[in-house]
Specification:
Layout lengths: L6 H10 L2 H8 L3 H15 L4 E3 L4 E3 L1 H28 L4 E6 L3 H17 L3 E6 L14 E5 L8 E7 L2 E5 L1 H7 L13 E3 L4 E6 L2 E6 L4 E2 L3 H9 L4 E5 L4 H5 L4 E3 L9 E6 L7 H14 L2
Parallel strand pairs: 3-4, 3-5, 8-11, 8-12
Antiparallel strand pairs: 1-2, 5-14, 6-14, 7-12, 7-13, 9-10
Helix pairs in contact: 1-2, 1-3, 1-4, 2-3, 5-9
């Protein structure tokens, strides 16, 4: 049985490409991981990792060994998860990265409902807008919006977010109402994530570069600036519905709004995903598609 010592640590270091990151993932010290790997290499009589000051990579022997050990560790993890599933008690901590008004106003309440269903599970949500490294930061999954980069992550569509362009009546009476997206070059636009807005022009996506004197990556700040008459705003329509209903903002350019924007659940492309993450992801998808 001693031959199994260090295998879990080995697989984790191989996937995390670092001892300290693997230790964080396993909830132990870096020195413990290092000792386990050293003992494993001694038993096998070969080096499994090539180490430099900045990088840890598998040797050719380590790569071959990893392919076999990964299946062993995955089988063990799945066996443990099946027992947990039978008892149906989720424990530990679910860590989620999310940002934006949709995450704060919609995703968080959905995860609160999930927490109520699993009283022994802790949930941590990071609303920081920075891009996270899911493995290094110990994140189970992230909520992302818009067009996804080719990052190697698994992405599951969560919800459609049709866009909406709006302005206050005071702004429109003073500067006029644009007839088509190309007119925006003559208007002050409130910029949220970027200065290129994409519209649907006769069935073709068209990127329009806009400018303005108010810029913020906070949806609430964009909304309030628009209500104050600082310019035209263009964001997912759920941000504006209440203000439009209250006549504080007026929809414009309706025929050109994009309808193909989505929010996504993204997670590391691994053979094994913890049960807490799988069930939370399924809960969110069911929650927003019922």
């Amino acid at each position: 049985m001693d031959s199994f010592d260090g295998i879990i640590e080995f697989v984790c270091v191989a996937e995390c490409q670092g001892f300290s990151t693997a230790a964080k993932q396993l909830g132990c010290s870096t020195s413990h991981v290092s000792r386990q790997i050293a003992k494993l290499e001694k038993r096998l009589g070969c080096a499994l990792f090539a180490r430099t000051t900045r990088l840890v990579s598998l040797t050719s022997a380590g790569q071959s060994y990893y392919q076999q050990c990964r299946e062993l560790v995955t089988g063990l993890q799945q066996a443990n998860e099946q027992i947990n599933a039978q008892q149906f008690k989720l424990v530990g901590t679910l860590r989620v990265s999310a940002a934006g008004s949709f995450a704060e106003q919609e995703v968080a309440p959905a995860l609160m409902q999930f927490a109520l269903l699993h009283p022994e599970l802790s949930i941590e949500i990071d609303f920081n807008s920075r891009r996270v490294n899911l493995i290094e930061d110990g994140i189970d999954f992230a909520i992302r919006y818009g067009k996804l980069e080719d990052s190697g992550l698994v992405a599951r569509r969560l919800l459609a977010h049709p866009m909406m362009a709006v302005a206050s009546s005071s702004y429109l009476s003073k500067y006029g109402t644009p007839v088509d997206p190309y007119d925006l070059k003559d208007h002050s636009c409130i910029i949220s994530n970027n200065e290129h807005w994409q519209f649907n022009c006769q069935g073709t996506p068209e990127n329009i570069k806009v400018k303005g004197r108010w810029k913020s990556n906070n949806a609430q700040a964009v909304l309030e600036a628009c209500e104050q008459g600082l310019g035209i705003a263009y964001m997912p329509q759920h941000n504006f519905l209440k203000s439009v209903e209250q006549k504080k903002l007026t929809p414009i350019l309706e025929n050109y709004w994009r309808k193909d924007s989505h929010s996504w659940i993204v997670y590391q492309d691994r053979h094994f995903l913890p049960l807490r993450a799988r069930l939370a992801i399924d809960h969110l998808i069911e929650y927003f598609n019922r």
